[in-house]
Amino acid sequence: MMSLLCITIISLTLAGSVYSQATAHPTVKILADLGDNITLPCRLPPKDFMSFGSIGIRVKWTKVADDEALNEDVLLSMGFHRKTYGSFADRVFLEEQDDEDASIRMMAISMEDTGRYRCEIINGMEDTIQEVLLEVQPGLADGVVFPYSPSSGRYSLNFTEAVQACRDQDAVVASYDELFEAWKDGLDWCNAGWLSDGTVKYPITKPREPCGGSSNGPGLRSYGHQDKQSLYDVFCYASALKGDFYWLVQPDRLTFDEAVQACLDDGAEIAKVGHIYAAWKVEGFDRCDAGWLADGSVRYPISRPRKNCSPTEAAVRIVGFPDKMQKSYGVYCYKAEQ
C-alpha cells in the first residue's frame, strides 16, 4: 500500500526570518474503477474559529503534473463561492460532511483522471497542504456490451427475465462500469435496459429529442432503481469467444430448423447473439450476409462500413425475427473449444 503525505505548514516571520513547522500524516492511495464516483479526502485544521464557510479561508484543488506549468485547476472555493474548471466542471463537488471537510466528490471517473491531486487550504499564517494519488483501473477490454430485446418486442423483460435472456445468449447482464465503458467507446442506444444492479439506463452519445432531449449532454441516461417486475430491455455483456464463430457455407437458403440442423451436422451449434457480438467487437468479424441465430433473430456483423452493408458505422445489424419457415437466410454457427 503506497503512502503519501498530508502536511500542515505553520510559518512565522521574525526580524526577516521565516520559521516553519511541518507535521506529516500518512494517507492512502485511492483506487477507483472506471466510471466510479469517488471521494478525494482533505480536511481543515480542527480549530474552533475555522469552518468551511469562514470568510478568508481559501480551498484550492489542483491536478499536479510532473511539470508544474502543466498543472490543471480542479476546484476553487472562497467562503461560499465555488468554481470548477475544464473537464472537472459539473462533476466535482465539495463533500462538506461537516464544517472541517474540504474533500471533493468526483463523478464518472475516466482513465484521464488518473494522477496526483493537491488540496491547499489557505488561511493567512496557517496553511494546510494534502496530496492524494488517484489510480483508475481500466474496465474489461476483452468483451462487448450489447442491447437485447426478445422476439416479443421492446420493453418486455422484467429483471428475472432479463437475467435469463442474457444467459440464453451466452452472456450476463452488464454492470454499470461495463455500460459506461461501452458508452465511452461510442455505444448509443435509445431504449432503456436493465443493468446487473437493478437500475435501468441507456447510453447516448448523440443527444436528440426522442432520447432524453437535445439540450442534455452525452452520457448515461438513468431511470434509477426500478421495481424488478417492471418491463424494459436489457444490456448484456459477452466476454471474448472460447471457440470459433463462422458463417456456414450452404448451397441454399434455410428455414430456422434447417439452420439449426446444418450447424449440428457440421459439429457445431447455431450461434447465439452473444457470439456474434463478441466475434464482431473483439475479433473484427465482418460479413454482409444475414443469418439465423439461436434466438430466432437474423443478424449480420459489419466491422468495415460500406455501401449496402451498414454504410455509416460498424455494427451488428438486425433484420428482425422473421417467420421461422422462411427460406431467405443462411446461418452463423459456433464451435466451442474442446
Automatic annotation (TrEMBL):
Residues 35-135 form the Ig-like domain. Disulfide bonds join 190-211, 288-309. Residues 1-20 form the signal peptide. It is found in: Secreted, Extracellular space, Extracellular matrix. Residues 144-238, 243-335 form the Link domain. GO terms for cellular component: extracellular space; perineuronal net; synapse. Gene3D superfamilies: Immunoglobulins, Mannose-Binding Protein A, subunit A. Pfam families: V-set, Xlink. InterPro entries: C-type_lectin-like/link_sf, CTDL_fold, Hyaluronan_bind_Proteoglycan, Ig-like_dom, Ig-like_dom_sf, Ig-like_fold, Ig_sub, Ig_V-set. GO terms for biological process: cell adhesion; central nervous system development; glial cell differentiation; positive regulation of neuroblast proliferation; skeletal system development. One of its GO terms (molecular function) is hyaluronic acid binding. Keywords: Disulfide bond, Extracellular matrix, Hyaluronic acid, Immunoglobulin domain, Repeat, Secreted, Signal. Belongs to the HAPLN family. This is Hyaluronan and proteoglycan link protein 1-like. It comes from Echeneis naucrates.
